[in-house]
Each structure stands twice: as C-alpha cells, then as structure tokens.
Specification:
It contains nine helices and seven strands, in the order αββαααββαβαααβαβ. Helices cover about 35% and strands about 20% of the residues. The protein has a single domain (about 1-20, about 25-145, about 180-225), classed as Vaccinia Virus protein VP39 (Rossmann fold, 3-Layer(aba) Sandwich). Strands 3-2-1-4-5-7-6 form a seven-stranded mixed β-sheet, sandwiched between helices. The longest helix is centred in the first third of the chain and has 15 residues, at about 1-15. The chain is of the alpha/beta class. The radius of gyration is 17 Å and the shape is globular. The termini are far apart. α5 links the parallel β4 (about 105-110) and β5 (about 135-145).
Length: about 230
C-alpha cells in the first residue's frame, strides 16, 4: 500500500515539475541520470525516486522517510542521511526529458536505467542525452548484458539467466521493459546521433569516478560514446 502511495506521489510531483529547466554552473558538468543512491562527489544526480524528492528536506524528515520505507534493508540511517546531505539531487521524471539546456553537460552517466524504459522511451531519452551534451561530450551507459544472459542459459544456469529479465519489483519503475546486447545498444546510440561508440570494461573508460559509480560487473554491459 505504501509503495503504491509513493508511486502516486512521485508521479504527481514529477508532473508538476515537468517543465523545470536547470542551468548548471562550473567548468565541468557531470550528470548522473536515474542515479538512485549510487552517487559520486561533484555529480548532479537526476532521479525520480522518493529519496531525490526529499533530499533537500531537514534531516528529521529524511529520517522519517527512511523509517517508513524499505531503505533500511540496504542503508544505515546515518549513511542514508549523509548521502542526501552531501550530494546534489534534482527530483525529475525522465519521461519529461532532461531538464538542462542544449550543449550544457560534459559527462552523462546512466547505470541500469535504459532497461526500465520501453524502446520508444529509450530512443527519446538517448536523443535528449545527445541534445544536452556539449560537442565532444561523453555518455556512459550500463545495462544488463543480454548476451551474458543467453550465455548463462546455454550453460544450464537458468535461474541466473532469468534474473536478467524478471524482477520482484514493488514499483513500476523497477520492472525491466527491454534488454540490450552491444549491437542493439550501439544502434540506439547511433540513431540518437552519437559517434565513437565503444564497449568498455568495468571501471574503465573516459568517464570520471568509475570506481565509485560502476557496479555489478558480473552481469553488466558498459558502453561509452561521444557527441
């Protein structure tokens, strides 16, 4: 019941803020799309979660949110409050695009986000990524690797393979909508206008702070591209 209320609340607030535009400051602007709580210093974290919505609230209210949700399974209360206090979060539903001007971002990082979007929404989002990146800017996208899932299945590891496709997600945002291998993800990026599309290794590439940002190497496809 609480999960459905949170979904409703975040959707309503996101709709009310759908036309927001932010003008970033600084010589280098780094944007973490659909960040959740996987963050690094100096990045702008754009997310449609309850955590991003309450990030600017006083600590006592953040603690109340923590106690009412399932966040305690993954984070200690002090850790949760500290993450929200020390990092910049912007609450935004990416269904409404990326709320930044053209040619304003140097780096975009997107981890395990695209698989939660329909194919049409993924096309729309990657075009928005291209729009907001500065010329020569870099995007890094990570998704579950479809080729790895089939490899596991072929070796009799059926449960592990199915885990790439089916999740016990309490929220609509947690469900997988589409899956990618390198070729299909590269095609998506090419159609959005990107060039120099390369497969990367875990914590390796041109994007800063990968030691803090990259995760789940056993199941993840890592790809970088340039505008």
């Amino acid at each position: 019941m609480l999960g459905k209320f949170v979904d409703w609340l975040t959707r309503v607030v996101a709709w009310s803020r759908r036309n927001q535009v932010h003008h970033p400051r600084g010589a280098m602007v780094k944007l973490n799309l659909g960040s959740g709580l996987s963050v690094a210093p100096g990045w702008i974290n754009l997310d449609g979660s309850l955590s991003a919505l309450v990030a600017s609230l006083p600590a006592p209210l953040i603690k109340l949110v923590y106690r009412l949700t399932s966040l305690k399974v993954s984070y200690r209360e002090t850790e949760y409050v500290e993450i929200l206090a020390r990092h910049k979060f912007i609450f935004h539903n990416l269904a409404y695009g990326i709320p930044f001007p053209d040619d304003s971002i140097d780096f975009i990082y997107s981890a395990h986000l695209l698989e939660h979007l329909t194919r049409a929404d993924a096309r729309q989002l990657t075009r928005a990524m291209w729009r907001v990146l500065k010329p020569g800017g870099c995007v890094r996208i990570t998704v579950p690797d479809l080729a790895r899932a089939f490899e596991l299945y072929q070796h009799g590891k059926t449960e592990q393979a199915l885990g790439f496709f089916f999740l016990d997600a309490a929220s609509d945002l947690g469900r997988h909508q589409y899956m990618y291998d390198f070729e299909s993800l590269a095609a998506l990026l090419t159609n959005a206008g990107f060039r120099a599309i390369e497969r990367r290794a875990f914590q390796s590439g041109d994007t800063p702070d990968l030691v803090l940002l990259d995760n789940r190497p056993e199941q993840t496809l890592y790809v970088e591209a340039r505008k």
